[in-house]
Amino acid sequence: MSEPVPSRRKAALVFIFLVVLIDVLAFGLVIPVLPHLVEEFTGSTAQAALWIGVFGTVFAAIQFLSSPIQGALSDRYGRRPVILLSCLGLGLDFAIMALAPTLWWLLLARVFSGVFSASFTTANAYVADIISPEQRAKSFGLIGAAFGVGFTIGPVLGGWLGEVDLRLPFWFAAGLALLNFCYGLFVLPESLPPEARSRRFDWRATRPWAAIVLIARYPAIIGLAAVVFIANLAHYVYPSVFVLFADVRFGWGPWQVGWVLFLVGVCSVLVNVAVVGRVVRAFGERRALILGLSCGVAGFLVYAFAPVGWIFLLGLPVSALWAIAAPASQALITRQVDKDMQGRIQGALMSLVSVAGIIAPIAFASVFGLFIGERAPVEFPGAPWMLAAALLAAAAGIAWRYAPRAPVRDPIADAG
Predict the structure, then answer these.
(1) What share of the chain is helix, strand, coil (3-state, %, to 5)?
(2) Model-level pTM?
(3) Ranges for the Major facilitator superfamily (MFS) profile domain (predicted)?
């Protein structure tokens, strides 16, 4: 059996959990009000929808550019200053969004949000620094739980605050991020000792395309990186089409959709907190990865073919088990990367996720429009879920082929 994680490391892990939770909660707060604020500027719902699409693409593109830079900075100067700067920057950025007098001002603020939100890569590297290889999958599961909690509570709270004033959620989000900065300033220890840091900051490693080159230097993780990319492509089916699909297929309005998203978040939290660690211990990281992806396939097929709403709901706990895959893949990847490269590898992976965020919304929206439009080859609103299921099935096949079948040498443990 592995040794328990020391109390100091547990405290640091708790703080990282809170950093991610508060950051995600802050972003969740503005989800229900940002489109209405854009609509206020444009004066047209159709124009607002177009601009929201532009905002999403720009946000993902900026993350794509920023993630490897933050990862490299954390490898050179340590995780703590990068995480704290991100918290401070997000707080100031949400305040700017609350004060935005024009649409272009709001768009500029979203650009800065994309820059500072890339700190999730540094949070992953921090976990890899302080947690033993045997405990990493469970710890990454806790980070996943923070995402689930934030995106479960955030939109509900943001909608309630937005009823009072459309800009109030932005102020509340700014307060949370700045509180996070103050808390971390006094509590967060550095996880990367000076001797383990990169000797210099290499700008060449921060080029967006350098992510592919960097991953190619580690042949053992190329297949796993492909799994991460494809799985994130599939995940974007939720924000891309769920609201419209629920309306067309089941006649659900905002109230029903809100509660379904709440259930999705609850299921995700339960899986990350109570299931991930047990499954990884019982089956190992490779089998847990394949099992999680397979559950995602099954859940999406239920969504695609559900004739009525209650059958769709039956797919929620099945697809929620997909959450097992992400921490399992992260644990497998970190086992095969040197300590002073963890930040850059996490930044490279986040760049791939950002590319998925640029491509996927257009793909899923186009498929949805094709199969519900007048020229549809067959009326099938569930087509986007079928596409997502096919992507996850492909990811499962790649994982079966390339994921290590047994624990491999861990460079971090060896370095320690």
Answers:
(1) 85, 0, 15
(2) 0.65
(3) 12-407
* Sign of the torsion angle spanned by Cα atoms 249, 359, 217, 142: negative
Report which secondary-structure segment, H or E, holds 292. Answer: helix 276-305
Better pLDDT: 393 or 344: 393
96 exposure class (CB count in 10 Å sphere: 0-12, 13-18, 19+): middle
Residues in Cβ contact with 86 at an 8 Å cutoff, skipping those fewer than 6 apart: 23, 70, 116, 117, 118, 119, 122
Residue 19: inside a domain: yes
Number of domains within the chain: 2
pLDDT at 1: 36
Which of 373, 374, 15 has the alpha carbon at shortest distance from 184? 15
Indicate whether 46 pLDDT > 50.
no
Q: What is the pLDDT of residues 263-316, one digit of tens each?
A: 887 888 788 778 888 888 888 888 889 999 999 999 999 999 999 999 999 999
Same domain, 212 and 257: yes
Q: Which of 356, 296, 346 is nearest to 324 (CA)?
A: 296
Domain with residue 28: its CATH number is 1.20.1250.20
Check whether residue 176 and residue 272 sit in a common domain. no
Neighbours of 282 (CB within 10 A): 9
Give 224-276 pLDDT, tens digit per residue.
888 889 998 998 888 777 766 777 788 876 567 767 877 887 888 788 778 88
Distance CA 298, CA 296 (A): 5
**How many C-beta neighbours within 10 Å does residue 359 have?**
16
Q: What is the dihedral of CA 356, 360, 362, 368, to 10 degrees?
A: 180
User: Is residue 105 domain-shared with residue 217, that is, in the same domain?
Assistant: no
Q: How far apart are CA 157 and CA 135, in angstroms?
A: 33
Query: 160 and 259: one domain?
Result: no
- Token pair of 375, please? 């020229």
Joined tokens for residue 111 = 């650009």
Answer whether 117's CB lies under 8 Å from 97's CB. Answer: no
